[in-house]
Request: fold
Amino acid sequence: MYTQAQKDADKRYRLRHPDRCRAKEKRRWKEKREQESKRNREYHIKNKERVNLRSRLNRHKLTEDQLAEMYRKQKNCCAICHKKFVKTPHIDHSHETNKNRGLLCDDCNLGLGRFKDNIEVLSNAIQYLRRHQ
Reply:
């Protein structure tokens, strides 16, 4: 058991030798940091999908249950083209409000992005396609 007398003696030593104590603490921290980095690297390699999912959920401020509900509501299909998801869908969101809108396939997500979510430009594209059918 660590007595009060030992605590007091340790405190006096730290006050008399701050440089030694700081150097010792730096060595300990460096060793611990290297061990933590190694452990984190191994975890990320073994759990790549889990880490990516957690990152996506954090970025879009979603829980796993909320994401599962989005999949369920959209019947595992893209919100625009209604094709079944083959790859991991994109979580579409408004860049102005940061609110999530739905899940999109690669093509639809890229399309909206290229048109910069501009309704007028998208409407012009629809009219263009109708004129040239």
In short: Strands lie at 90-93, 100-104. The chain has two domains: 4-46, 48-131.
